């Protein structure tokens, strides 16, 4: 235990409370908790605390608070923005939820599941599926991302167009507040107007107001019919028009509606094995449409064929392929899911996880593409994403042959170029990734004035010592 | 202006700012703003401020805050719990939103509408309907209730089983904070993870953290097919089982799922003209089921007939009638909507707007019925409500022939009897009506400890002078 900077008395108390598996202090053990998965931040910590229960977590937090030790909550360590990584001072402890992995109950009458914070999203999905139900949240890191972190960051993903973000799925919550008090909001009620929406406040607060320990999640009946199609279209406006056509018929049937630019698709087709384009020729834009319903009849097939048939007749969709089997469906989804990997293989890239109102998407993509191409000639503008939510991953891939370092040296210029256009369209600089430490610098100009002022007041009220995940969301004053 | 207790300098400044229509000080003009519609509270106020714009509202709030004058935001004055009524001191001003009645935009691509706080829910519904869209929120006071108040109290109603409470419909918000700052959260984004969920915090805060001035609401395509049925069943468990059967087939089709007890239905049938039971004989329990879809095909009719047919075959439903026309549909809804009026005609009654987890509803109704019947022999336990949300209006009607005063003298005993059972089932003492001033006394025992403590800290942080709607939500310390 030679590596820790913790006061001896605190170390003893934590050791007695958590035992040897619950307290890591050797650098060899703690290192992996101090670097984010994108490798953007390399921090240090005084210890990693791994409580196995809410009560132990609460006692550990109270002890750290007593000594004024900063705490960094961490789930699956899959933050895109360094939200769960300690700073370089080595003064903070990481509190990991990865020993809190119990799935308490799945209730068929209430359509809820009660899970501890350290359960991975995949494990929660599987547990629901095993009972014929569905946890309708899906993100690419679901094998590692844990429920606590997912709620702390209000994760989004592919199915939010139908079921909302993580926020909308959480019916109940339990959290440990910065002073070690347990906040018990574990009510599985669909209507409860008894005071401030503390559950909503904690969700998306990125661990800065408390550490989520348990949650009650809403489930859905598992879909018994599903229709999936990949469509070729002329431009993002056509993709939006197709979305509106499906939405007008049945918004509840749309399980996912994903956009892929021609540039990004071409990278996938050329760089990913087994991901060739299942259409006759490349197009400027694509939509991956998935309809789903718990009904087992053929009404979904009818809906898909009617809307797509009309769109083909109108020339809105130039080509389309329908999945005729589950393996064909998975092949279409594989193409969508490989966009990030294909871009990685194509060289250095800059990610912009932005959102704008649906109506502004075409203008956004047109303007941002032109601006980036003017900034760096030869740049490959390769957007894709959850267009049904207005959420575009406006990713920028380096020109072929350019030194990646030269490209990345201009990352702020590229991000600012995109952000400035997003701002003129009343959009957001972080649709689903959160602020973490990567984007704190953007908060004053985007969320300044009364908004940031109110956030700071709430933070100070609930965490007057600033011990809970310091340095996240808020820029240093 | 002789009736006001405001400092002369403040009065002059407010008068210059708001003009004669914007500032009422004569008791004859202000009286109607000082009594809630249930006539439970008769307060007084120093003036009624009626700003016509957000900017005027912000300036008025800043002036009042400067002088430490308490402010009571008020929309349509339809609170069930005295949430918009000033106390008897006469020191507060009422700030009415009823001059802020502009509907700014309805956007078909984004499926949103932007409305000022003083627009009534009915006017907003009608404006959406005129454009072929639907604002899916419906409450009995919708002709008077205004959008600002609806969001401040997170109103619920008949369609929350499908579309959620008011909270889930609000995509953007603008509010004036207790110090007069304008908080602009007018982003119509479905994904935006950039700091604390201030919009969520304001929604349901009952005007204690600020005054909502404008909102962006999510719309839906208007339904093009609808199926409505009234079913007779043996008990609440059977109603829940029927609900689960529909939900398993298609939760998104369920626009409303209402429960009515046999006792409450009998009062409607006997006391309301034109509301006779459209079934062959009375039953212990009824369900009003409404399915809806923007699809124009016959899939909804098939769904209704399949589920109901099976339920009749299984003996789950003992009798049922399907609406074959819009007028028949309205007749069925009239029966549901007259329950409150019928109970009023039957004598004195005590309302309990409670919620429990769905799975606990049968146990709740059985236990609470027995307990109330033991407390007051002859009492008519007449529950009804939004069973699909777990929200039961567990209303108690006086025994026939009893003096109403004798009955109402025991109101706290009845409310506590019901509440104690709700509490053992992890329910809520206020599902959709809020806390207001009527239920502040329940907060310490129900939401005490860390929860109320956190709420108080947030209140103190954002309203350190306690000038914004004082006496609501929080019991006097």
Automatic annotation (TrEMBL), chains A, B:
Domain FAD-binding PCMH-type stretches: 41-222
InterPro entries in the cross-refs: FAD-bd_oxidored_4_C, FAD-bd_PCMH, FAD-bd_PCMH-like_sf, FAD-bd_PCMH_sub1, FAD-bd_PCMH_sub2, FAD-linked_Oxase-like_C, FAD-oxidored/transferase_4, Oxid_FAD_bind_N
GO BP terms in the entry: respiratory electron transport chain
UniProt entry tagged with the keyword tRNA-binding: no
UniProt entry keywords in alphabetical sequence: FAD, Flavoprotein
A Pfam family matched in the record: FAD-oxidase_C
A GO term for molecular function: FAD binding
Protein origin, superkingdom: Bacteria
Cofactor annotation: FAD
Presence of the UniProt keyword Flavoprotein in the record: yes
Family indicated by similarity: Belongs to the FAD-binding oxidoreductase/transferase type 4 family.
Protein name: D-2-hydroxyacid dehydrogenase
Organism: Acetobacter orleanensis
């Amino acid at each position: 235990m030679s590596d820790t900077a913790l006061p001896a008395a605190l170390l003893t108390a934590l050791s007695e409370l958590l035992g040897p598996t619950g307290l890591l202090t050797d650098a060899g053990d703690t290192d992996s908790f101090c670097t984010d998965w994108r490798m953007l931040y390399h921090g240090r910590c005084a210890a990693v605390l791994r409580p196995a229960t809410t009560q132990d977590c609460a006692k550990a937090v109270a002890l750290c608070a007593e000594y004024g030790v900063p705490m960094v909550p961490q789930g699956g360590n899959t933050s895109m923005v360094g939200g769960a990584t300690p700073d370089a001072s080595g003064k903070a402890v990481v509190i990991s939820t990865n020993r809190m992995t119990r799935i308490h109950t799945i209730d068929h009458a209430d359509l809820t599941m009660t899970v501890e914070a350290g359960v991975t999203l995949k494990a929660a999905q599987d547990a629901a599926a095993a009972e014929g139900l569905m946890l309708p949240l899906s993100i690419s890191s679901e094998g590692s991302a844990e429920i606590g972190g997912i709620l702390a960051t209000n994760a989004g993903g592919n199915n939010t167009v139908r079921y909302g973000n993580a926020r909308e799925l959480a019916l109940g919550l339990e959290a440990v507040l910065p002073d070690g008090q347990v906040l018990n909001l574990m009510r599985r009620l669909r209507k409860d107007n008894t005071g401030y929406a503390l559950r909503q406040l904690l969700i998306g607060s990125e661990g800065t107001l408390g550490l989520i320990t348990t949650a009650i999640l809403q489930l859905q009946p598992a879909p018994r019919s599903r229709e999936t199609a990949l469509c070729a279209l002329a431009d993002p406006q056509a993709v939006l028009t197709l979305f509106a056509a499906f939405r007008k018929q049945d918004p509840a049937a749309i399980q996912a509606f994903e956009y892929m630019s021609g540039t990004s698709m071409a990278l996938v087709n050329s760089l990913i094995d087994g991901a060739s384009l299942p259409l006759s020729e490349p197009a400027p834009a694509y939509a991956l449409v998935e309809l789903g319903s718990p009904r087992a009849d053929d009404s979904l097939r009818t809906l898909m064929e009617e809307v797509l048939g009309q769109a083909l007749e109108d020339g809105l969709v130039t080509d389309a392929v329908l999945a005729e089997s589950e393996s064909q469906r998975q092949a279409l989804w594989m193409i969508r899911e490989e966009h990030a990997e294909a871009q990685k293989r194509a060289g250095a890239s800059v990610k912009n996880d932005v959102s704008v109102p649906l109506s502004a998407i075409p203008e956004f993509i047109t303007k941002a593409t032109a601006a980036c191409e003017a900034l760096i000639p030869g740049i490959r503008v390769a957007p894709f994403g959850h267009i049904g939510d207005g959420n575009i991953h406006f990713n920028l891939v380096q020109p072929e042959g350019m030194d990646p370092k030269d490209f990345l040296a201009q990352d702020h210029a590229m991000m600012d170029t995109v952000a400035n256009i997003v701002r003129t369209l009343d959009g957001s600089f972080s649709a689903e990734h959160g602020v973490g430490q990567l984007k704190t610098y953007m908060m004053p100009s985007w969320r300044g004035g009364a908004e940031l002022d109110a956030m700071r007041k709430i933070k100070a009220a609930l965490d007057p010592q600033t011990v809970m995940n310091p340095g996240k969301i808020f820029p240093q004053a």
